[in-house]
Design goal:
By secondary structure, the protein is an alpha/beta fold. It folds into two domains: 10-37 and 136-314, Rossmann fold, CATH 3.40.50.1100; 38-132, Rossmann fold, CATH 3.40.50.1100. The chain has 14 helices and ten strands. It has a six-stranded mixed sheet, with helices on both faces. Strands 5-4-3-6 form a four-stranded parallel sheet, with helices on both faces.
C-alpha cells in the first residue's frame, strides 16, 4: 500500500547558514498533504490498523493529529471519529469534516478528550489513534530521518519541537536505524509547554499543572513515557524558549522562506534565528562547517490573521 505521507524537500537555508555560521538545512514537513509531519506516523498506524481489520478509527486531537487521522480515514475509506476539546477552532473542525470525519466536542482540555475517545473506541471496537504515543507512530515518524540520510552525510545535530514526544521518539529511532546514534538532538519546547524539560530535570515523568502560552499544539501536560526514556538513552539536549522567540521566528521564517508555520514549529526555528548558545556549541566532526537539520514540523493552525494576533500578543 502506498504511503499516505510524501517525501518532503530538504533545503539549505542560506540566510540561516550565514547567521549561524553553519550549514543549516530545513526538512520541510509543513509541505505534507496535511500540513504537518503527523501524517507520517498516524498514516502508518492507520494503514496497519486497516490491514488488521479495524472497523473504524477514533482519535482525540483538536489539532494536527486529528487532521492527519481524518485524512488517513478518508484515503483508506475507514469511518473516522475525532474527539476534540472545546478550545478547538471552528476551522480545524471543518477541515476534519471535509475529510469525512465525524467530530465530537468533549472536554475543556485534551486529557479529558483523550479519556472520552478511549472509552468510545472500546465501545465501538474501533482503533484508537493517539496523537503521539504508539510504536507505529514512532516508526512512521522515523522515515523523516531515512529521507535526510538519502540526501546528505551525517549531520552534526537535529533540531525539533516537542509536544507529546512522538516526533522525538521517531527521530531517535530513525537516527539509530541509520547508524547515527551519536547525532545529538536539540529538543525544543516553549516555557508554557515544557513537560519534557521538566521531566528530564526531575528524572521522572512529570505532569504539568496546565498548559500556557501561544504554542498550544505543543500542549501535552505529560510527554510519552518512551519520549523521556529515549531522551535519556540518546544525546538529547532540552531547550526551552519563550513565546516571543517562537512567534518572532515564525515571522522571520515567513519573510525569509515564504511559508507560514505555527508557533509550535517556530519554537525549533527560533534556536537558529536567535543563534542561541546551544547551537553555537555544535561542532563539525570534519574540517567543514557543522551541519544542522531543523525539522520544520509545520502545522495547519496558522493564517495571516492568526499571525497578526500572535504578533500583537507578544508586543
Amino acid at each position: 500500500m502506498k504511503d499516505l505521507h510524501i517525501r518532503t524537500p530538504l533545503i539549505e537555508s542560506l540566510s540561516l547558514s550565514e547567521r549561524c555560521k553553519k550549514r543549516v538545512y530545513l526538512k520541510m514537513e509543513n509541505m505534507q498533504p496535511t500540513g504537518a509531519f503527523k501524517i507520517r506516523g498516524i498514516g502508518l498506524l492507520c494503514q496497519e490498523g486497516k490491514r488488521d481489520g479495524a472497523r473504524c478509527f477514533v482519535s482525540s486531537s483538536g489539532g494536527n493529529a486529528g487532521i492527519a487521522a481524518a485524512y488517513a480515514g478518508s484515503k483508506l475509506h475507514v469511518p473516522t471519529t475525532i474527539f476534540v476539546p472545546t478550545t478547538t477552532a471552528a476551522d480545524f473542525r471543518q477541515q476534519m469534516e471535509l475529510y469525512g470525519a465525524e467530530v465530537s466536542i468533549v472536554g475543556d482540555v485534551w486529557d479529558e478528550t483523550h479519556e472520552k475517545a478511549l472509552g468510545f473506541a472500546r465501545k465501538v471496537g474501533g482503533l484508537y489513534i493517539s496523537p503521539f504515543d504508539h510504536p507505529l507512530i514512532w516508526k512512521g515518524h522515523a522515515s523523516v530521518i531515512d529521507e535526510i540520510a538519502l540526501e546528505i552525510d551525517k549531520p552534526d545535530a537535529i533540531v525539533l519541537s516537542v509536544g507529546g514526544g512522538g516526533l522525538l521518539c521517531g527521530v531517535v529511532e530513525g537516527l539509530w536505524r541509520n547508524d547515527w546514534q551519536d547525532v545529538p538532538v536539540l529538543a525544543v519546547e516553549t516555557e508554557g509547554t515544557a513537560s519534557l524539560a521538566t521531566s528530564l530535570k526531575q528524572g521522572r515523568l512529570v505532569t504539568l499543572d496546565k498548559i500556557t502560552g501561544i504554542a498550544k499544539t505543543l500542549g501535552a501536560k505529560t510527554v510519552a513515557k518512551e519520549a523521556l526514556e529515549r531522551a535519556q538513552q540518546h544525546p538529547v539536549q532540552s531547550v526551552v524558549v519563550t513565546d516571543r522567540e517562537a512567534v518572532e521566528a515564525c515571522v522571520e521564517f515567513a519573510n525569509g522562506h515564504q511559508c507560514l508555520v505555527e508557533p509550535a514549529c517556530g519554537a525549533s526555528l527560533s534556536v537558529a534565528y536567535g543563534n542561541r548558545d546551544v547551537l553555537k556549541k555544535i561542532e563539525s566532526q570534519t574540517e567543514a562547517l557543522a551541519t544542522v537539520v531543523i525539522i520544520v514540523c509545520g502545522g495547519i493552525g496558522v493564517d495571516l490573521e492568526r499571525m497578526r494576533e500572535w504578533t500583537s500578543a507578544i508586543c
